[in-house]
Write a structure and sequence with these properties.
Number of strands: 17
Radius of gyration: 22 Å
Number of helices: 5
Oligomer: single chain
Distance between the termini: 32 Å
Shape: globular
Helix content: 10-25%
Structural class: mainly beta
Amino acid sequence: MEATPPCTPPPTTSTFGGGITLVRRSGSHGLPTAAPPPPEFPQPAPTTIFTIGDDLLLDIFVRFPSLPSLVRAAFAYRTFLHAVLSFPTFRPRLFAAYSPLAGVLHRIPAPPEAVRELYILSPPEERHGSFHLVCVHEDGLQVRTVVFSSDTGEWQLLPWAEAAAINKDHPQDDKHCLPPRTGKLVDGRVYWTRHDYVIVLDTATLHFSSMDLPPYMYGQKPFVVGETKDDKLCMVCAIDEENTIPVWVWRADAGRVYKWMLDKEIELEDLSTLKLVAVKQGFVHLEQL
């Protein structure tokens, strides 16, 4: 009889005032693992995403949770895009898995240059089915957008934006404009959190700018941008020494000046074993280390 492997425990939630909810997920089964015995035969070469066949690759693609995630994966590498566009049986499965809008994927040419991130936008003021793909390309201390319009069927390269023009206090010894983590799209703007400031891309004007971090966040461990339940921009970080998670919200004060305002501080028993993962629709997601 074969032993059944232990299942990952379900996430646990805790609700605090103001509608903020913590979601904890276990990063492992929590069981000790014995060291594997030495192999008796030479191990085969590891299988990677680049070595699997088109059939399996496409089977993975149709299981993506949403059409935007599928498009991002397809444009990550030219081999992925070629598999999606050239396989004759994939398009009907794409229609079934997502929506009729997925049928336009085969009409999108590859971007004119390598891109780092991709965002799908459907402006509400335009007719049904119209959309834009906004890609972000970074080259050291400069960044720019590459935009595809479903109306024209063409890609447009926007001018480079220099890090020093986005924020005049960009450190001279920092040779990268964007941080390693991908941006977060909130209410039409993409936010990248650095240790010293936040880079903002307005997807309507395609203009890069910067904003300050909330007070007392400078020098803290990585923080996360997200949105509240009413879609307001917020930012959280975990302060291990105090076992607290402050929640800052970008809102207008009494004088109608927008700034970071402390909404609440969530106190936990021990943050040292938890990793801050994301903030989505008012839910703060934590993962057990």
